[in-house]
Amino acid sequence: MKTSSPLIPSRAAQRAHLDAETIYPILDEAIVCTVSFVADNKPFSIPTSFVRYENKLYIHGSVGSHFIRELEKGIPVCITVMLIDALVIAKSAFSHSVNYRSVVLFATAEKIEGQEEKMKAFEWLTNKIVPESWDYLRPVTLSEIKKTTVLAFKIEEASAKVRTGMPNDGPEDKVLPIWSGIIPIQIKNMAPIADEVSHDIPLPKHLGGL
After folding, report:
1. Which of 50, 41, 82 is nearest to 150 (CA)?
2. Second label for 116, Cα 20 to 30 Å away, from 46, 52, 134, 145?
3. In angstroms, rounded to a whole number, what is the distance separating the alpha carbons of residues 14 and 9?
4. Residue boundaries of the structural domains of the chain
5. Rounded to an integer, what distance in angstroms lies between the CA atom of residue 46 and that of residue 66?
């Protein structure tokens, strides 16, 4: 990855990582990213689902979306992702923290015009959110493809920042009779709930293990 100055944090620089081996797994685990940009001299920051394939990050939206139409002009954007792994409980409020993994990416959008590549992007995103679901679902129609814009962003100017471990209490605080440690945070899928027209339809195998 490029090492231009915005990629190196001003604080806790030792937590920064510029390698794909650190950045890609974070992008692959996260479902939502936030896309920030400036349009008409106003700042915008839009959360959206995404998928990484090889060295590109893909998002999609309606062809009429103001958000998508601004990005397809090729304006600079900053894309961020953050995963929270634990609350870090120190002996003082000042030293409380969070264990996290984050990525910051600077890029411009490439509009995907080819129908085949657009279809593959839909498949990659669908299977990321619900693994093995693409082949089970009703096929996407040509009309749906035409109504949707797919944008790709090269993962070149990107960095990750990671915090792990226990609290960093000072020596004078470590001896205090106050509990400290971490509280792990886990996001997980719960049991599927059928809608009113699907009660008699067997739960497909790919949903049973989510």
Report:
1. 50
2. 46
3. 9
4. 5-85+98-167
5. 11
pLDDT, tens digit, 9 for 90 and up, residues 36-82: 999 999 999 999 999 999 999 999 999 999 999 999 999 999 999 99
Report the alpha-carbon distance of residue 167 to residue 51 in Å, rounded: 33
- Give the CATH number of domain 5-85+98-167: 2.30.110.10
Number of H helices, E strands in the chain: 6, 11
Mean pLDDT score across all residues of the chain: 93
Contacts of 29 (CB under 8 A, 6+ apart): 83, 101
Task: Pick the closest to residue 71 from 14, 34, 110, 98 (CA basis).
Answer: 110
Geometric angle at alpha carbon 114, from 113 and 118, rounded to 5°: 90
Residues in the chain, overall count? 210
Q: Are 106 and 6 in contact, with CB atoms under 8 Å apart? A: yes
- Cα–Cα dist 160/157, whole Å: 11
Given this model, what pLDDT does residue 147 score? 96
